[in-house]
Amino acid sequence: MHLEVDQIHKFFQTRHGKIMALQNINLHVEGGEFVCVVGASGSGKSTLLRIIAGLETQSAGKVTVDQQEIIGPGADRGMVFQRYTLYPWLSVLENVTFGLKLQGVPKKERYERAYYYLNVVGLGPFQEALPKQLSGGMKQRVAIARALASQPKILLMDEPFGALDVLTKENMQQFLLEIWEQTETSILLITHDVEEAIFLGQRIYVMAAHPGRIKEELKVDFSHHHGDEIKRSPEFIDYKYHVMQLMREVPVEAVQTP
C-alpha cells in the first residue's frame, strides 16, 4: 500500500475573497505504517483527512492510493470519526455488518468478518448489545471494528479519542497500538494532542495554521512495544518540546485573493 498526497491546496470562498485553508500539502504513508498528523485548531488537518477520505474535494493537487487517484469515498480507505457514528437502533454486530451489506459482501462472509474483528477489539461478548449500553471507549472499539471489517488498505482516524476521558483515552491509545501490530493495517491519524501523536506515530507531520501547511516531518524512533511509561522518558519529552515549539510559532496571515 502506498498513499501519496501531492501538492494539495484547498480554498474556501468568502465574501472577502478566497481563503487558503491548505497550502501545498505533501505527505505519504507506506504499507503497515502508523503516521500521525498533529496541529492546532485551524491548521486544516480535518479538512485534509476528509480530502484523503474522498469526502471533500481539493482545489488543486491529487491524492492517490497505489497510484489510483481518489475521486470519492472507497472501500480501500476506512474512516473512524471522533464521534462514534453508530446506528443506535442496530446491535453491535449489525453496526459492523451494515457497511459490508451495502458493499454487497455475501451474508456468510460479512458475519464471519464481523465476528472476527469484534473479537480482535475485545467485544465478542457484546455483539447483541445496543450502542446505548456501551461506554464511550467500547463504542469507539465498535467503530474501529466496523472500519477494519471492510479490510481497507489504510485506516483514516479523525481525532478518534478526543471525546473520551483521560484514562479511557490512554487505554484506547495502547489498544490501538496492539490492534495495529496485530492487523498490520496502515493508519493515518490526525490529532491536536502532541503526546498522542508522539506515542502512536512512527512518523509525525507537524502542521501550522493560516494557511494549513506542513512545518516538519519527524521520525519517531521508539519501539512500539511500549507502555505509558515512555511518556516520562527524556527522549519523549524532547520530542514533545520540539513539536510544541513548531506549533507555537506565530502563524502568517491567511492568504486572501480577490
Q: Mind sketching the topology for me?
A:
Layout: E1 2-14, E2 17-30, E3 34-39, H1 45-53, E4 60-65, E5 68-69, E6 77-80, H2 92-102, H3 107-120, H4 136-149, E7 154-158, H5 166-183, E8 186-191, H6 194-200, E9 203-208, E10 213-219, H7 234-248, E11 256-257
Describe the structure using short key phrases:
258 residues; alpha/beta; Rossmann fold; 2 domains; 6-stranded mixed beta sheet; 5-stranded antiparallel beta sheet; disordered C terminus
Let me know the average pLDDT.
Answer: 90
Strand content: 25-35%
CATH superfamily of the largest domain: P-loop containing nucleotide triphosphate hydrolases
The H-and-E topology, N to C, reads as EEEHEEEHHHEHEHEEHE
Radius of gyration over alpha carbons?
19 Å
Q: Biggest sheet: strands side by side, in what order?
A: 6-7-8-3-9-10
**Helix/strand-derived class?**
alpha/beta
CATH architecture of the largest domain: 3-Layer(aba) Sandwich
- Give start-end ranges of low-pLDDT stretches: 252-258
Query: Biggest sheet, open or closed, and with what strands and sense?
Result: 6 strands, mixed
Helicity level: 25-40%
